[in-house]
Amino acid sequence: MKMDRRAFLSLGVGVAAGTTLSPLPWKLMDDISIWTQNWSWTPVPDDGECTYINSVCRLCSGACGITVRKIGNRVVKIEGQNGHPINDGGICLLGLSSPQILYGQERVQRPLKRDGKRGEGKWIPISWENAIQEVFSKLQQLRSQDMPNRLACITGTDQGTVPRLFERFLTVFGSPNYIRMPSIVDSYELTLNLMQGGPSSVGFDFESADYILSFGSGIIDGWTSPVRMFKLNSQWKDKNIKCVQIESRLSNSAAKASQWIPIQPGTEAELAMGIAHVMVKENWYHPDFVQNQSNGFAEWRTKLMANVNLEHIATITGVHQDVIIQVAKEFANASTPIAICGQGRGLIPGNMREFVAVHTLNALKGNINQKGGVGALAELDYIDWPEVMMDAIATKGMAIERIDHANTDHYPYARYLMSRLPKVLLNQKEPMLEMLFVLRSNPYYSLPGTAIIKEAWEKIPFIVSFSSVMDETALYSDLILPEPFYLETYEDIPTPTGYLYPMIGLMRPVIQPLYDTKPAADVLIQLAQKFEGTVAKAFSWSNYQTCLEKTLKDKWDTMIKKGYFLDTSLSQVWKKEFTTLSGKFEFKNMELKELEKETTPELEGSKEQYPLLLIPYDSLRIASTSVANPPFVTKTIEDNVLKQNDVLLEINPITAKSLGVKEHDLVEITTPHGRAIVRIHLFEGIMPGLIAMARGLGHETGGDYLYGKGVNVNSLLGSIESPFSGFEMAYATRANLRHV
Amino acid sequence: MTKGESASTNSSRGSGSIIFLFFIIGLIGSLVVGWIIFPMLLYSEKKQPIDYNHAIHLDAVDNGCESCHFFREDGTFSGIPKLSQCVDCHGEVQGSNPEEKRFVEEYVQKETEVPWLAYSRQPDCVFFSHVVHVKTAEMKCEVCHGPIGSSEHSKEYEQNRITGLSRAIWGPSIAGFRKNSWDSMKMDVCGQCHEKETGSKGPCFQCHK
Amino acid sequence: MKESSVHENAKKYGMVINLDKCTGCGSCMVACMSENNIPFKADETNKLDSITWMRVYRLTNKEPFPKTEMCYLPRPCMHCGGKGDHGHSPCVSVCPATATDYDHKTGIVSQIYTRCFGCRYCMAACPYRARYFNWWDPVWPKEMESMLNPNVSPRMRGVVEKCSFCFHRYQLAMEKAYLEERRELEEHEYQTACTQACPSGAIVFGDLNNPSHKVHELKKHPNAFRLLERLQTNPKVYYISSREWVRRSGDNYLIGENKTSTK
């Protein structure tokens, strides 16, 4: 039997017929179509039981209640906690993105020791035992050489048990150099201290206020507790409460305000004085408060009337006299108006003259420590650890001046002056710091004047970062002792900035720690216990969680159940009396007179060389505090803020025309402090002559989703130090543009 | 008619049957491939990690299938039980079944979840609500899952090499014939029943996600 | 039109977004991304290929400084009912694969990823740019696969996706209702992720047909408008703005066209 052509064809026909009559082609087609619809490389999320756990967000000082949705053991989503006093179900985009940080590639997964140069990103994993031993031996050396003050520590906030444990450690160790990162918390503390007597933190009863006058505060751009402010902003709209925004650029807050008053940057204090001038001149103030509860009003008034000229103020601020009068009248006619300040998010403490002038407006209306007003909050005194016993080394060390000169004769009003640290280190004649701890802050990235900070960092021989993610400060450190992420551990969260009641939130673990991390406070306790004597004695807890439980005492159970502790009786938590020398609200005391003499330092560089003024701005879509943008948040950045890796520089079309630049042109921006390549974005909403750039870009970390996107505006800004307080007040810098 | 012509006719006759033979070979060969070899090749067989006896468990519980395959408070279906449920009874070895002993030793004591192979798992694009079928429409589990509750051993898990799905989705017949209501879990089966019971197959995302 | 489209108890889920309250903070966008397993790439600045089911647009009145005004406009899928609410939404009527359909029981326009073969007709048809094409396979860094939501299927390269009004949340709410032997949902039981997250309370979601739902009254607000109403797409997303220029920018007008034609 020989297969010829026809037989072969016949076989083929048979095969075809047989195949058609078999399920093979039909089943295969079905299976292949299913296969194409379910690629094996497309992840299929595991299903499982859905559970919800309440906790508190720690990504900013807002202290929102969160509800974490878990499927099985996976954190799938963060939602706002319903009924929570701060955010009642609402949540910001950064909080929502927390799982991306938790599961992010930037997590530091174990203790790391630097290998290679700082910033090179080469690390050697090291055991916790060895890491702690290394820190211990260096600390011990400092003490044995009688130089405990050469240890410094920087934390984001100074409230809550963990920052307080760090402060306690430094004290008992013998270093006065515990430093809090700068923010408007500094300037509000000082304002209250000067005018109402301290110590206290500021609380705003926006919930009952009926007129809001904001001197550049980013009410919906992240100021104080962002979600609370969003909620309030909507409440004001529902209740028809007027909100006036004074700002040189049409920010979101300005766009959403009832009225936007553009102003020359840096002249807010003058405008506030102008408004006060009108109110006093027209007798539009609260007579009872001014006469019975205040001190120095007459003298202040005489000087105000003599020195302030409305016409002059209109010229320098760029705000028309009629507008000043209109605002003064509205503010005076309101029954509980609140004036606030602190630019944008409030990351820069700012100009104390402005804070005092703005708070004076509140005082003129007598809207102090009352419903609908501004109040001084006594801190919740739940941290009552036994006083530390000081040994000779510690006593001696603590007697030495702080490195930043805060609370010394030079700067008697400031508690912390982080912004001065780089300058001090650069001018040091002999080494002043041997060792630095950094906790929950990213000073290497987030302070104005990046070039100077980089240089100053070189002067610190040993830097320990406690960061749970690789941020710039961690990248340029020598040892990273990673904390668990906030979703993995217990901690108390202090009162959110500006909230009207003192409050403690309980952050709790919603998932077992993913990596080999250790709470920073536990590291501290273990370090302390390696010492003998007073240092060990000051940290006699077995671990941090015990310390927290013991500290919170009876509150612990309430907080486990409810998630927070809150005392909502205004009469009890707001200070009733003024604790100034006079026992009254101070319009003009010695310190305030001193402040009056202060003149804002001239901006560096000449107007000829740098004809433009660069201002930084905050956007909720770009995290700019200790946390950097997770991928979701970066995805929301508009293409007129960031385009590929170029940051866009806002400029008024009139200014652009005069400079001969067009939309999306690449230009080089030069300031006395640095230079960068940026793209032009024409924006009608910015004052001619100004240029604006977003804060929070230009990271050296963050992997594919963040690294190298845009420019860190801090590298273009220079530090401006207030002569009176020593606070950072970098509100702008001179700048020039050049085509490239 | 010449010799040669005749020869050629003969040979064409002979070759005609050969041609037919080849046709038959092709036909039968491909039928064998399509009906017998192809299904054998298409599915890989896997054993369940533990040979599970449904019948014995169903006798021991009060609430039928839902005793273990229960509805959560949020209305979702729990599916195959987690180890924590089994531990309630099987914290210690109870009987003499070697499979139970193995289960306790390898999974309960080591606190690892059993990697059960789910016969009825649909691809990720399918949304199926058990509660509306079982509670609202009062359907019996058997209608879709068959008499699995009375099985004394776990049957082999057959996995489609192309789609990765369980054979139960397509059904035992490679041709897609159904003898029982539970013989297939394909979309057509859902659609037919929905059309009959509710008057329409429903919008796409009633069952797709 | 099929008979089934005229349901007695048909729901018509929709949104009313108060643009006076919207702050442009972006919470809705991220809540949506997190809820719906929206992928992300290294560079998301090309907004044409950046998948954002919910996208917040920035509008300005184009007036020179200092008369400039700005407004944010969140744009989910409009779930158009088409003329007469018959379900002839622009995308549904052009899809050759029946990968997108209109559910007359809820008024929601679905998108079935496994059905879609990526011809992108629907994208061309959608006047709101609410539809996005997966030009690439979504890739999550390995650890981040842990945060994927099992209630929404991750998509694959070559298909179109869009806002579903978090229909899976409707499904889950119905499961609970069925267990409790109910057939109807309370207003709060079914809310989209963006509505839930919005810190300003600018987004209100509910059944436009149900007088007890907030959206029922809100949509009748004198300052309420919809986008491109003149196309008769009949969107289910309403906006409220007290500013006329914002309301006018909701539609296209010829230069000099009668200014009062806007509501």
Rg over CA atoms of chain C? 19 Å
User: Strand-residue fraction of chain C?
Assistant: 5-15%
Mean pLDDT of chain A: 95
Tell me the number of helical segments of chain A per DSSP (H or I, 4 or more residues long).
Answer: 28
Instruction: Enumerate the spans of chain C where pLDDT stays under 50 for 5 or more consecutive residues.
Output: 1-7
Q: Could you say which structural class the secondary elements and strand pairing of chain C correspond to?
A: alpha+beta
Number of helices in the DSSP assignment of chain C: 7
| Percent of residues in beta strands of chain A | 15-25%
Which descriptor suits the 3D outline of chain A? globular
The overall pLDDT of chain C, averaged over residues, is 93
Quick overview of this protein structure:
Chain B has 209 residues and is mainly alpha-helical. Chain B contains 8 helices and 2 strands; from the N terminus they run αβαααααβαα.
What does this structure look like?
The complex is a heterotrimer of chains A (about 750), B (about 210) and C (about 260). Helices cover about 35% and strands about 20% of the residues of chain A. The mean pLDDT of chain A is about 95. Chain A has a seven-stranded mixed beta sheet, with helices on one face. The relative contact order of chain A is 0.14. Chain A is of the alpha/beta class. Chain A has 28 helices and 28 strands. The longest helix of chain B is centred in the N-terminal third of the chain and has 40 residues, at about 5-40. Chain B has about 210 residues and is mainly alpha-helical. In chain B, strands 1-2 form a two-stranded antiparallel ribbon. The model of chain B is unreliable at about 1-10 (pLDDT under 50). In chain B, α3 packs across α4. Chain C has about 260 residues and is α+β, with helices and mostly antiparallel strands. Chain C contains seven helices and ten strands. Chain C has a four-stranded mixed beta sheet with strand order 8-1-10-9. A two-stranded antiparallel ribbon of chain C has the order 2-3. Chain C has a two-stranded antiparallel ribbon with strand order 4-5. In chain C, a hairpin with a 4-residue loop joins β4 and β5. Chain C is globular, with a radius of gyration of 19 Å. Chain C starts with 12 loop residues before the first strand and ends in a 15-residue tail after the last helix. Mean pLDDT of chain C is about 95; it is low at about 1-5. The interface of A and B includes residues 3, 8, 10 and 13 of A.
